[in-house]
Design brief:
This protein has about 500 residues and is of the alpha+beta class. The protein has 2 domains: about 230 residues, Helix Hairpins (Orthogonal Bundle), CATH 1.10.287.950; about 120 residues, Glucose Permease (Domain IIA) (Distorted Sandwich). About 65% of the residues lie in helices and about 15% in strands. It contains 5 helices and 13 strands. Strands 1, 4, 6, 7, 8, 10, 12 and 13 form an 8-stranded antiparallel sheet that branches. It has a 3-stranded antiparallel sheet with strand order 5-11-9, with no helix packed on it. It has a two-stranded antiparallel sheet with strand order 2-3. A hairpin with a 2-residue loop joins strand 2 and strand 3. The longest helix is centred in the middle third of the chain and has 169 residues. The radius of gyration is 64 Å and the shape is rod-shaped.
Length: about 500
């Protein structure tokens, strides 16, 4: 773990120690706020490192691709170099063969030179003989000087032979000289061409060797860059692991802090219920005392009325004797009338039975946090072109629509948080169980961390902050404390109307 991560953990431990020493709502709020800020910083750092690692991976892929291309070119150049060397060897073999042919031609040329020199000597000898004889040989005189026809035939045959021999010598001399010149020119031209081609191939080989050397240097540079990127990626991966570890610890501490606030909310709820029970008991006692007093007053009135009736009866007794006969007659008449009424009067009605009211389901303890239509339900959805899971519901309405607390509880966070934008988080204790609610994308916030807000109390106004395409409230319900993964999020539609 690096120094920065250790410093972050040390700071978190200090914050927790302070929160233990100052267990007030305000201290709770400050502690949670700092933890949330540390969590956001760690998450941001983690995202930055993750992006950096992905960039390095992409750079490594590009570098690997480039390196493979360069190595392919080097291999191609190696093949060309080998091909060129093969051509050079072939040309060199042709040159060696040509040199052998040249040597053979030179020997033939030497023989031709000897023949030409011999013919030249013979011709020169003939010329000297003609010069010594005083002129040119007159073959007509030779023929006319014949002594007989047979001698003429012999002389004619000799002259023809001499003339043919001279002509053959001259033809051979000219042909040998021409062949000698042609062979010399051909050999010299072929040798020059082979030497030029050899020089060209050597130059090409030199260029290819230079390119190969240059590509080799580039390949070494790319390998060094590849090693550097791998090293940097390793360092970033190690730091990323440290940040993830710190982020998890922060998230656990945030959850623990929320649970502590939830316990405060539970105790506050218990106190509220106890207070309500005491108020109900006091009201019932007062009602009982009032009823008892009313009953005593009724009894006193009844006793007074009885005494007055007794006095009246005593006064009336004085005249009893005088009216006895009349009263007896009157009484007899009344009894007769009473008997008659008793016979004709209907029977008394039976008492009306009490019908119990139907059972009512226990309320979830939540109310709808804002007026408007549900524009996006809980679950999978496609937004901004990507498929994602929606951990709450969206209630759409105009900017500034009041946002109410869905249940009584403590504000565990109030401020800006990433894609939530302006958000309020609350922790509740309902029927002894911890719940958390989230109110995101607010235009304004009217509560602070650690504040206790009763159900229906104002916490802010609807807006479109954070990742939002229009004014609406993003509302989440969590069974338990809120956590970064939101794994305990439930469908709010099951808790509100």
């Amino acid at each position: 773990m690096n120094l920065k991560s250790k410093w972050m953990l040390s700071g978190i431990s200090s914050i927790l120690a302070i929160s233990i020493l100052l267990p007030t709502a305000h201290a709770n709020a400050n502690t949670l706020n700092k933890l949330e800020q540390e969590h956001q910083e760690a998450e941001q750092k983690k995202n930055e490192l993750n992006s950096g690692i992905k960039e390095k991976d992409q750079e490594i892929k590009v570098t690997k691709s480039t390196l493979e291309t360069i190595l392919g070119k080097i291999e191609e150049l190696n093949n060309k170099v080998k091909e060129t060397e093969g051509k050079i060897n072939s040309v060199q073999a042709d040159i060696d063969k040509t040199k052998g042919e040249i040597e053979a031609l030179r020997a033939s040329i030497e023989e031709l030179k000897i023949k030409i020199e011999e013919r030249t000597a013979l011709l020169q000898e003939r010329a000297r003989a003609i010069q010594l004889s005083g002129g040119s040989v007159d073959y007509i005189d030779v023929l006319l000087g014949a002594n007989s026809f047979v001698d003429f035939i012999d002389r004619f045959s000799a002259v023809s032979t001499l003339i043919d021999a001279d002509r053959e010598i001259m033809r051979e001399q000219a042909a040998d000289k021409e062949l000698l010149a042609e062979q010399k020119a051909s050999v010299e031209s072929k040798l020059a061409q082979q030497e030029a081609r050899n020089a060209e191939l050597k130059s090409l080989k030199s260029d290819l060797d230079g390119q190969k050397q240059q590509q080799g240097v580039l390949a070494e540079d790319l390998k060094a860059e590849q090693k550097r990127l791998e090293s940097e990626k390793g360092e970033m991966t190690e730091e990323y692991a440290d940040v993830i570890e710190v982020s998890a610890e922060l998230e656990n501490e945030i959850v623990a802090e929320q649970e502590r606030l939830a316990e405060l909310a539970r105790k506050a709820e218990e106190e509220r219920q106890a207070k309500l029970a005491a108020e109900r008991a006091a009201a019932e006692k007062a009602a009982a005392e009032k009823a008892a007093a009313e009953r005593a007053a009724t009894r006193a009135a009844e006793e007074k009325a009885a005494a007055e009736r007794a006095a009246a009866e005593k006064a009336a007794a004085k005249n009893a004797a005088e009216r006895r006969a009349a009263e007896e007659r009157e009484a007899a008449a009344k009894r007769a009338a009473a008997e008659k009424e008793k016979v004709s009067a209907p029977a008394p009605a039976a008492p009306t039975p009490v019908v119990s009211a139907p059972a009512v389901s226990v309320s979830s303890g939540f109310i709808r946090p804002a007026a408007g239509r549900v524009s996006s339900p809980f679950g999978n959805r496609t937004i901004f072109g990507a498929r994602e899971f929606h951990y709450g519901i969206d209630i759409a309405n105009g900017t500034g629509t009041p946002i109410k607390a869905a249940a009584s509880g403590y504000v565990t966070f109030a401020g800006s948080m990433g894609s939530y934008g302006n958000v309020v988080m609350m922790t509740h204790s309902i029927n002894g169980k911890t719940h958390a609610t989230v109110y995101a994308h607010l235009n304004s916030i009217s509560v602070g961390q650690g504040q206790y807000v009763s159900q229906g109390g104002s916490i802010g106004a609807m807006g479109s902050t954070g990742r939002s395409s229009g004014p609406h409230l993003h509302f989440e319900v969590h069974v338990g404390a809120w956590n970064g993964s939101r794994s305990n999020a439930v469908n709010p539609a099951n808790y509100i109307n």
